[in-house]
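Re: folding output
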Amino acid sequence: MRLISGFLLGFLLAGTLAWAAILPDPVGIKDKKTLLYLRKLRDIRNNVIITTTSPNGNRRGRTGDIVIFNDSGTYRWRVNTDTDPSGGTTWASVTS
């Protein structure tokens, strides 16, 4: 019984994690501003990049782009703060 319970729990957790990988398009919202806002959030969440190389000075991006930097097991949010309209390589740490 314990083995079956463990298998079912593992299956449910793995299925939940796999399902949460990509957010679907928001549906059933008639307010255009809210729909556009939710779509923008979805696009940002679905396009977050995880990198093991520090993005500061190495990765080009537009102002506001988000990258998750994996620094030897410590995850740090980095946001592009460059003011150049064509993009730049200046990234600021949101978390320490």
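--- second protein (sequence, then structure) ---
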Amino acid sequence: MGTVILGNELALDVNVLWLLILSLFFVFIVTAAAVRVIGVITCAGVLTFGLAKARAEVRAVPEAAAETDALEAAVAEARAAAAEATVAEAEAVIAAAQLRLFGEAGS
């Protein structure tokens, strides 16, 4: 005669059917909620990664600024040395011209 639940032979089949429907509904709801949760977690992960990258770039700025300052100082020193060399060359040209001028005048 089969399994009898609550005096109805078809009750088991109906209960199994409802259990299946409710299980699928529960899985659908949980999956729908999980997609949103996973989306939020993914967004948080991407934002955290971006923030960490931005912080690393901000930390690199003072180092780059120090390197830039050192390079600018080296360029300024090179310009000063070039200016001194130009002045020394000009003084040498003037001295040679004076020597020629006064040397010829004295002969």
